[in-house]
Specification:
Helix content: 25-40%
Distance between the termini: 83 Å
CATH class: Alpha Beta
Structural class: alpha+beta
Number of domains: 1
Number of strands: 7
Order of helices and strands: HEHHEHEEEEEH
Length: 176
């Protein structure tokens, strides 16, 4: 009798699961496009970055207010003017290979009135040396990219910008 009840409960659990599923990939076209996008960032190739951004790009940088393409271009330009040796790393505490960035793309099924959505999520540590202070910065970061019509339509940047901003303020004060 117990086996029968266990079989019924197990069957019920599987019957109630959402079979639409969420597809997670790591070496797909969009994940690889983001890897190339980050190479454009590291090379300060603004035109290469713009080629993947929708002209109506909305970027949420630790904020609910969105910024646009011009705003992110200004920030990237300031970073490359004020920092050297910019790199990205993703390595675990156990000595695994440095992946540069962790990249995964997730396609979510339509849900509660929202259409199917594809997001590429990235995690890394942003590393750089301040040109003014000489300080080495290590900033853990997560950036999520939402896709639409083959381009990035939204980005969510999550990181603590305080050390980065301190370097930019120091550089600004010294140039005055």
């Amino acid at each position: 009798m117990r086996k029968l009840i266990l079989i019924l409960i197990t069957s019920f659990c599987f019957a109630c699961t959402n079979n639409q599923g969420v597809m997670v990939t790591f070496d797909d076209e969009k994940s690889n496009l983001i890897r190339a996008h980050y190479q454009n960032y590291l090379s300060n190739d603004i035109e290469g970055l713009k080629s993947l951004w929708s002209p109506d790009l909305k970027i949420y940088m630790n904020n609910v207010e969105s910024a646009g393409v011009d705003d992110i271009v200004s920030l990237i330009t300031a970073q490359h003017e004020n920092f050297s040796d910019i790199s990205m790393s993703f390595q675990d505490d156990e000595g695994g290979e440095d992946l540069g960035i962790w990249v995964q793309t997730i396609t979510y099924p339509a849900n509660n009135g929202y259409p199917e959505t594809t997001m590429t999520q990235t995690w890394f540590t942003w590393n750089a040396t301040g040109k003014t202070s000489g300080n080495n910065l290590q900033v853990p970061a997560h950036i999520g990219f939402q896709w639409g019509d083959g381009r990035i339509v939204k980005e969510w940047h999550n990181f603590d910008p305080s050390s980065m901003m301190a370097e930019l303020e120091l550089a600004s004060a010294q140039s005055e």
